[in-house]
Design goal:
Number of helices of chain B: 5
Distance between the termini of chain A: 111 Å
Helix content of chain B: 40-55%
Radius of gyration of chain B: 13 Å
Strand content of chain B: 15-25%
Helix content of chain A: 40-55%
Strand order of the largest sheet of chain B: 2-1-3-4-5
Radius of gyration of chain A: 41 Å
Order of helices and strands of chain B: EHEHEHEHEH
Shape of chain B: globular
Strand content of chain A: 15-25%
Number of strands of chain B: 5
Largest sheet of chain B: 5 strands, parallel
Shape of chain A: elongated
Oligomer: heterodimer
Structural class of chain B: alpha/beta
Distance between the termini of chain B: 19 Å
Largest sheet of chain A: 7 strands, antiparallel
Number of helices of chain A: 14
C-alpha cells in the first residue's frame, strides 16, 4: 500500500516536473513566434535587432548581447558595436566581446563589400555603444563563453551578433539552441522581407516606369527621389534636375478654370504643392501649360510608416489630346448647329412673312398650311437646340446660373403661357401655389422653365379630352412627402421645393416606366397619341435637375394619369460653371 | 417725312439675307446689303449705316474680324453692332460682346418681328 503511495507521489513529482518543462518550452516557443511575427512587420535591420535583443533579454536576463551591422556598404560605413546588457560589466568584458567579434569579422568571406575595401575598412578600430549597460570600469566580470552568429541576407552578412555569458550554468545546449533558433528565425524573416520588399519594389518600379502618366516623387528636403520616363519626357528633364524647385520653374502657367477661350494665367505651383503637403491632402490642378502640352496635375502627400508626411508626389496626366478632341467636338457641334439652323432660319422668316399676310392675303387652306409649316419648323429648331443642349450636358459644359427668383410667380407664368395649348382638347389647367408667402429661391430660370414647361406641355399633350391638369408648388416637410414617390430617397429631398404636375392622361405603361428618362425614348402609347416629340425632353429635364442638385421622378398608372415631381434644393439650384449658348 | 434709318445687313446666306431685307424694308428701314466681311467693311465706310446687323460666319472676313477692324478704327463707324448669327455657344457670345457687339441674337430663335423690335430699340437709344 505504502509503496503504491510512494509511486504515486513520485509520479506526481515527475509529472509536475514535466509540466514545468513543457511550460518553459512553450514560453520559449511563444517568444520565438512572437519575435517572428514582430519581425515580419519591422522593415529595417536595426528594428529587427531591437526585436531580437528584447526577446533574448526576456528569456536570458544574464546574457550580454552585442551586434554590429557593419560589413555592408563602403569604406565609409560606420563601425559600431552595440552592446546590451542588464548586468554590470567592465572594460575587460567589453574588450573581450570586441576582440571575438573582430576576429570573426576578419575571417568572414561573405561580406557585403569589396574584399580589398573590407580589409582596409577592418584596420580602423570599432566604436562601442552601450545600451542599458551598467558600466563599471573596474568590474572584473569575465567573459566565459560567447557565440558569434552572423545574420545573412542575400548570402551576405548583414549583422554580426554576439551572445556572451559570465555564468557557467547558462552554458547549456538548450539555451544556445533557443538563441540560435531566434536568430535563424530572424534571418529567415529578414530574408523573406527583403525578397518581398525587393519584388514589391521591382513590381512597383515596373508599374511606375510603364505608366503613361508622369510620376515624380520628392522628399521633405525637396530632393527628387523618383521620376518615371513619362515624367522625364513631359518635363524634359534628365538627371540634372535634382530639386523639385527646378520643376516648379518649368511650369509657370495654367489655364484659367472655366474660361472659354483657354485664357492663361500665371501659377505659383510651389505654393500650391507646399500647401497640399502642409494640409496633408491631395490637390488637383485642372490644366497646366508646359510648352505645347496641356497637363492635368495631381499633388499627393507621401507618408512614411508612421503616417507623417515625408514628401510628395506629382502625377502628371497629358490631356493635350483630350483638349484637342474637346475642341474638335465643340467645333463640330458649332458648325453642325450653324449648318442646320441656317436653312431653318430662312424658312422660319419667310413663313412668318407669309403668315403676316404682308405680301398678300391667304385663303383659309393656305393659312392652315402655312401654320403647319411654322409648327414643323419650330419643332425642328427645338430639336436642334435640344441636341445642342444634350451635347453640352453630356460633356459637362452646361452652365447653371441660379438667381434669386420669386418661384410662385415663375411657375404661375409658365402655367399661364401654356393655357392656350389646352383649348383644342378642352383641358383645364390650374395652379395651386403655397398658402404662405415664400422668400426668393435661387434658380436658373431659363433651365427650370424648360423643365417645367416640358412637363406641362407633356401633360396637355397626353391628356384625354376635358382632362384636368393640376400644378402645385410647396416645400417638402416630413408631413407632406408624396407617398407615391418610389425609388427616391425621401431624406434626400427633405425641405426641397417641390413642383408637381398631375394629369389625368394616358399614363405611362408599366414596361415604359424604367425608360422614360432615356434619350430618344418614347412610350408606345405616347407615340400613338402624338407623333410629335423628340424623346429628348425628359432626358434633358433629368440631366438639368440632377446636375443642379434636384430630383425628378413620377408616379403613373396607364389610362389614369401621371404626376411628375421635380424638386429644387432648399437653398436653390446649385451653380455650375460651364457654357450655354443663347440657344438654351 | 423723317429720314429713313440705314441698316447694314451683313449676311452670306442669300435666303436669310433676302428675308431680313424684305422684312426690314417693309418696317421702314433703308437696308444696305453685304455678302461677306470685306464688303461689310467697305459699305460701313461708304454708306455710314446707323446700325449694323452682323453675321459671324462669312467668307473673306468673318464677323469677329469685321468687329476687330472696327475696334481698330473707331473713326470708321459709331453704329451699334448687333450680331445675328446661328452660332450660339457661350464663347461666341462672350467674344462678340468683348469685341463691342451690343446684342447677340441667334437667328433661328428670333422671329422677324422680334428682330425688328430689337433694331428699333437700339436705334431709339442712339
Amino acid at each position: 500500500m505504502s509503496m503504491s503511495i510512494q509511486k504515486s507521489v513520485n509520479d506526481t513529482k515527475q509529472s509536475v516536473k514535466a509540466r514545468v518543462l513543457t511550460k518553459r518550452k512553450n514560453e520559449k516557443l511563444d517568444a520565438i513566434k512572437e519575435t517572428a511575427q514582430k519581425l515580419s512587420a519591422s522593415r529595417e535591420i536595426e528594428r529587427a535587432m531591437m526585436v531580437i535583443v528584447r526577446s533574448i533579454k526576456k528569456l536570458f536576463p544574464d546574457v550580454v548581447i552585442a551586434y554590429t551591422s557593419a560589413p555592408i556598404g563602403d569604406e565609409k560605413s560606420p563601425k559600431v558595436i552595440y552592446v546590451h546588457s542588464q548586468q554590470t560589466i567592465g572594460r575587460t568584458y567589453l574588450e573581450a566581446i570586441k576582440k571575438r567579434m573582430i576576429e570573426k569579422l576578419k575571417n568572414m568571406t561573405y561580406v557585403g563589400m569589396n574584399k580589398i575595401v573590407f580589409k582596409s575598412w577592418m584596420k580602423d578600430s570599432f566604436h562601442l555603444e552601450l545600451s542599458g549597460v551598467q558600466y563599471n570600469e573596474d568590474d572584473r566580470l569575465e567573459l566565459l563563453y560567447s557565440i558569434n552568429i552572423p545574420i545573412k541576407v542575400s548570402r551576405v552578412c548583414a549583422v554580426l551578433t554576439n551572445f556572451s555569458f559570465a555564468r557557467k550554468n547558462m552554458l547549456n545546449d538548450n539555451n544556445l539552441n533557443v538563441i540560435h533558433t531566434i536568430v535563424e528565425n530572424a534571418e529567415h524573416r529578414i530574408e523573406r522581407l527583403k525578397e518581398l520588399v525587393s519584388s514589391e519594389q521591382s513590381r512597383v518600379s515596373d508599374l511606375v516606369g510603364s505608366m503613361t502618366n508622369g510620376v515624380l516623387m520628392f522628399d521633405n528636403a525637396g530632393t527628387i527621389v523618383v521620376t518615371n520616363p513619362a515624367a522625364q519626357q513631359f518635363l524634359n528633364i534628365g538627371n540634372k534636375e535634382k530639386k523639385i524647385t527646378d520643376i516648379f520653374k518649368k511650369i509657370k502657367e495654367e489655364i484659367v478654370p472655366s474660361a472659354e477661350a483657354g485664357k492663361k494665367k500665371e501659377i505659383d505651383l510651389q505654393t500650391q504643392v507646399y500647401n497640399a503637403l502642409a494640409d496633408g491632402k491631395p490637390k488637383h490642378i485642372d490644366e497646366l501649360l508646359l510648352g505645347q502640352k496641356t497637363l492635368e496635375m495631381f499633388i499627393a502627400p507621401v507618408r512614411d510608416y508612421e503616417k507623417n508626411v515625408s514628401g510628395g508626389a506629382l502625377i502628371l496626366h497629358d490631356i493635350t489630346h483630350l483638349k484637342e478632341i474637346d475642341r474638335m467636338k465643340t467645333e463640330f457641334v458649332s458648325i453642325a448647329s450653324h449648318q442646320l439652323r441656317t436653312p431653318l432660319t430662312a424658312i422660319k422668316l419667310f413663313i412668318e412673312m407669309l403668315a403676316d399676310e404682308k405680301v398678300g392675303s391667304l385663303t383659309k387652306k393656305q393659312k392652315e398650311y402655312v401654320g403647319d409649316v411654322t409648327a414643323s419648323t419650330e419643332r425642328m429648331i427645338k430639336l436642334v437646340n435640344d441636341l445642342l443642349n444634350v451635347s453640352r450636358l453630356e460633356t459637362g459644359r452646361l452652365k447653371i446660373e441660379p438667381v434669386p427668383t420669386d418661384i410662385i410667380a415663375f411657375v404661375k407664368e409658365i402655367v399661364e403661357d401654356a393655357m392656350p395649348l389646352c383649348q383644342p382638347k378642352g383641358c383645364t389647367i390650374t395652379f395651386e401655389p403655397p398658402t404662405e408667402k415664400i422668400a426668393k429661391v435661387p434658380i436658373d430660370a431659363e433651365l427650370l422653365r424648360q423643365v417645367v414647361h416640358n412637363l406641362i406641355t407633356n401633360a396637355i399633350r397626353y391628356s384625354q379630352d376635358r382632362g384636368k391638369i393640376v400644378i402645385s408648388l410647396q416645400q417638402l416637410t416630413t408631413d407632406n412627402l408624396p407617398v407615391t414617390a418610389k425609388g427616391v430617397q425621401m431624406s434626400n429631398v427633405k425641405d426641397h421645393w417641390l413642383i408637381s404636375v398631375a394629369d389625368q392622361g394616358i399614363g405611362i405603361p408599366k414596361e415604359a416606366k424604367a425608360k422614360i428618362f432615356e434619350k430618344f425614348y418614347r412610350a408606345d402609347n405616347a407615340r400613338k397619341a402624338e407623333t410629335e416629340g423628340s424623346g429628348l425632353g425628359m432626358y434633358l429635364a433629368k440631366m438639368i435637375m440632377e446636375t443642379s442638385g434636384g430630383k425628378i421622378w413620377f408616379d403613373s398608372e396607364e389610362g389614369k394619369g401621371t404626376t411628375f415631381y421635380v424638386t429644387i434644393p432648399k437653398n436653390g439650384m446649385e451653380a455650375k460653371k460651364g457654357e450655354r449658348g443663347v440657344a438654351a | 417725312m423723317s429720314i429713313k434709318k440705314k441698316i447694314l445687313l451683313a449676311e452670306d446666306d442669300k435666303f436669310i439675307c433676302k428675308a431680313y431685307q424684305d422684312g426690314l424694308t417693309r418696317a421702314g428701314f433703308e437696308v444696305v446689303i453685304a455678302h461677306d466681311g470685306e464688303q461689310a467693311l467697305s459699305k460701313i465706310k461708304s454708306d455710314k449705316p446707323d446700325l449694323i446687323l452682323l453675321d459671324l460666319i462669312m467668307p473673306s472676313k468673318n464677323g469677329f474680324e469685321v468687329m476687330e477692324d472696327l475696334k481698330k478704327n473707331p473713326s470708321m463707324s459709331k453704329a451699334p453692332v448687333v450680331i445675328l448669327s446661328n452660332l450660339g455657344q457661350e464663347s461666341d457670345v462672350k467674344k462678340s460682346k468683348d469685341l463691342g457687339a451690343v446684342d447677340y441674337l441667334v437667328k433661328s430663335n428670333y422671329s422677324m418681328k422680334e428682330v425688328i423690335e430689337k433694331v428699333q430699340s437700339f436705334l431709339g437709344k442712339s
